[in-house]
Amino acid sequence: MESVGSAIQRLSDLAAAPHISRLSSAFSAAGFELALVGGPVRDAFLGRTLSDLDFTTNALPDEILAMVTPISDAHWDIGRAFGTIGARIDGHTVEITTYRSDAYDGETRKPVVEFGDTLEGDLVRRDFTVNAMALRLPEQVLVDPSGGVEDLVARRLTTPGAPEVSFGDDPLRMMRAARFTSQLGFTVAGPTAAAMHALADRISIISVERVRDELGKLLKSTAPRAGLQLLVDSRIAAIVLPELPALKLQIDEHFHHKDVYEHSLTVLDQAIELEELRHPGEAPDLVLRLAALLHDIGKPATKRTEPGGVVTFHHHDVVGAKLARKRLKELRYDNDTVADVSRLIELHLRFFGYTEGAWTDSAVRRYVRDAGPLLARLHILTRADVTTRNRRKADGLGFAYDDLEHRIVALSEEEELAAIRPDLDGEQIMAILGLKPGREVGEAYRFLLELRLDEGQLGTDVATERLRAWWATRPQ
Q1: S-S: 195 plus which of 163, 286, 362, 400, CB 3.0-4.6 Å?
Q2: What is the pLDDT of residues 298-341, one digit of tens each?
Q3: Distance between CA atoms of 175 and 196, rounded to whole angstroms?
Q4: Is the pLDDT of residue 258 over 60?
Q5: Which of 205, 199, 176 has its CA nearest to residue 188?
Q6: Residues 320/294, Cβ–Cβ less than 8 Å
């Protein structure tokens, strides 16, 4: 948290930037108000990078266009119906929105867009007090009608008005609260949290796409655990991702965690740590994080108590993959994300057989073949899934996976495992066996692929000999 003086200085330096100075001068010369608003003002106090600059004004969209056109490299009005005009000034993108005083019908998320006439009126309709601050330009006067600075100091999320009204107007704000707890490390004020719990069912009026996008933003934050816990505690997760709170009912087979829910959150934490260690500076991997969070959602349906009281979850990997595919489709994720997440869940237990006995080269090849382009993610997910408090056991699993990765590297260098193919292609198979394209060529190809996985590279001559022998003894 920056001091107020330091934050004001950061904002002052930003306001003095040539592109913002040109923008504020144009509005002032035309007799209109202009203010930097929302996230950039909040982030100045938090010491975060100032980006995605949003401005608000009493000018109407046509008037905004008239002012930005002469000073911009480009401009667009795709948000004109909501009062927003975008522009690029000296290579910097800005968005300027007319003051709003929206009204909601109580049945849908979509507001009746109404333009307001004061900055204060625009600010008090926003989601949280920490986002309801503005810097008037060019005067550089901080406007904070709802006590946002005090809430920033307390690292607290609360709404400018009554939370029941705010969340009733726009239920997606409840999911935004969960995201901000993770992104900013804030806690939700008691009355605000109580309103989330009371109004959780209202989230059902939000479009699936907006719920999905907000969930994705939460998962891509540095530490999503707190936000996910808030979604579960507020009952919102029971509506948007019911498989997550369902895990609270299941004790894992090692009895080393409060429940599978806590284990899953720990796996997510560890996956993020490994992701950042192995891929520093890269964008958050949503596929990996979804797989880590959902990898055990098949356990409730597969829980069995064996003689002696031992709890098992046989085939929860396969069941979980199917459940994840269904849930992600309902959330309207793209096909690639659905396929990749469900495949990772299906494969997440495969490694644990490695510790029961040394794998043959054939088994290693199959592991790589089955993972395909997901291998790097599977490495992280499998390692993250080790949450035992038994240090010796954890170290043993870690050393075993180190060994597996080393073997994969060695075999990859020798055999190009990333592109495993039979020693003969389809054209060669047809020429050798005198076949035309069809089912029999596919069967021969699969035979050679299994041979390649079992025995490694054989070479064209040996593969041809083995193919002829297989064909001669194949049932007709």
Answers
A1: 163
A2: 999 998 888 877 888 889 999 999 999 999 999 999 999 999 99
A3: 9
A4: no
A5: 176
A6: yes
Among 86-95, 170-179, 335-344, 450-459, which stretch is predicted with the lowest mean pLDDT? 450-459
Whole-angstrom distance, CA of residue 370 vs CA of residue 360 = 15
Look up residue 345 and give its amino acid.
I
pLDDT at 157 over 60: yes
CA–CA distances in Å: residue 349 to residues 99, 335, 345, 383, 384:
54, 23, 8, 11, 12
Beta strands 187-188 and 304-305 are: unpaired
Q: How far apart are the first and last CA of the chain?
A: 77
CA distance 174 to 230: 10
pLDDT in tens, 432-444: 888 888 888 888 8
Would you place residue 408 in the very low, low, confident or very high pLDDT band (cuts 50, 70, 90)? confident
Neighbours of 233 (CB within 10 A): 16
